[in-house]
Amino acid sequence: MKKIQMLLITNLLIFNLLLFSCKENNFKDDIIKTEDIISAINKNENIFLVNKTIVGDLDFTKIQNNYVMSNTMIMNEINSSITFIGCKFENKIVAFKISDKIAYSTNFKRNLTFTSCNFMDTVNFQQAVIDKFANFSSSQFEKFVSFQGVYFNGNENYFTETNYKENVAFTSSVFYGDVSFFKSIFFKNAMLKSIIFKQKSNFAAAKFHGYTDFTDSEMMQNFSSNYAVFSNRTYFNNAIFHANAEFISIQADTTIEFKNIMFYSNTNFDNSTFKQGTKMERTTFSVKPDLSKLKEKDNIKLDSCYISTTTDLKTN
Predict the structure, then answer these.
(1) Is residue 83 within 8 Å of 49, Cβ to Cβ?
(2) At 244, is the secondary structure helix, strand, or coil?
(3) Residue 23 included in any domain
(4) N or C: which end of the chain has fewer CB within 10 A?
(5) Domain presence at residue 87
(6) Ranges assigned E (strand) in 4-92
(7) 189: CB partners within 8 A, 6+ apart
(8) How do residues 241-250 score in pLDDT, each as one tens digit?
(9) How many CA atoms lie within 13 A of 177 on its CB side?
(10) In this structure, are residues 99 and 74 in contact, taking their beta carbons and an 8 Å threshold?
């Protein structure tokens, strides 16, 4: 009972804090101008907006607090907590741009939350640094999205049930905490190359309708794509899986390439369906994979693969 009371008190305090932040910003209208949001951030005020329509480019690189990182890079530092819930963004989100050969990026020192939001224009967080909690769950992106080279430093990162109508790029990003793309839908190309997942990565029940590329990515902890659907060409070439890799009950409507991969722990392909010929070429397994439970065993073959504990063992 005491634990429940403490939890209720804690939630009430958090709600009051968020409500105070909203009053402090004095955002009473249903339509909010982005210059008012930037002005509040420049005053180090927290942003907490629910069910609002945001008009104008939300350009985080326009804030006044910044510092020079190099001759070609300026970092804008945001110390405010940023929270948008159920909001609609009519125009662009800009956290990175290049002007006069100088790159401007953004460091979000506190949480960055856009849940159940609708982004009508492009979203660009390229080379941003997000130090705390990152949450984009249940949001829909209508145009191109870039999280290229982003450092997600928080313990938890959520992209669950996100919809991407156009191409999305997470190339060369680094996730220092857990990340979930559970039940997300990628309608066009998903560029997931050269990502480093320091903790657990979850793509379970995700749907990839376009070209999908995990090439050169590194999974330091457990990776799950259970029940995922891959409808177009998909590549895991040169990836490294340090912990368990689960591909249970996936549906591959086209070829998936598994070439030059290192599996340092268990792999699981139980009940998966590969509708076209899929090969694992020159791939190393620490534990020999059991392909006996595949739904269509003839559509996946091991070619010049070997078990690392017995380097001369070939399985064809």
Answers:
(1) yes
(2) coil
(3) no
(4) N
(5) yes
(6) 31-33, 47-50, 53-55, 58-59, 66-70, 73-78, 82-85, 88-89
(7) 167, 168, 210, 211, 212, 213
(8) 999 999 999 9
(9) 15
(10) no
Residue 41 lies in a domain: yes
User: What is the pTM for the complete model shown?
Assistant: 0.87
In eight-state DSSP terms, residue 62 is G
Closest among 75, 155, 134 to 107, alpha carbons compared = 75
How many Cα atoms occupy the beta-carbon half-sphere of 132 within 13 Å? 12
The answer as to whether 12 is a domain residue is no
Mean pLDDT of 119-140: 97
Above 70 in pLDDT, residue 309? no
Strand-pairing partners, residue 229, are: 207, 251
- Token readout for 85 is 């819930």
> For the CA atoms of the chain, what is the radius of gyration?
22
Residue owning tokens 């689960």: 246
Q: How many folded domains does the chain comprise?
A: 1
Model confidence pLDDT, tens digit, residues 64-98 = 998 898 889 999 999 999 999 999 999 999 999 99
What are the tens digits of pLDDT across the range 251-284?
Answer: 998 888 999 999 999 999 999 988 877 778 889 9
**Rounded distance, CA 249 to CA 291, Å?**
12
Domain of 298 in residue numbering reads as: 31-315
What is the Cα–Cα distance from 151 to 203, expressed in whole angstroms? 19
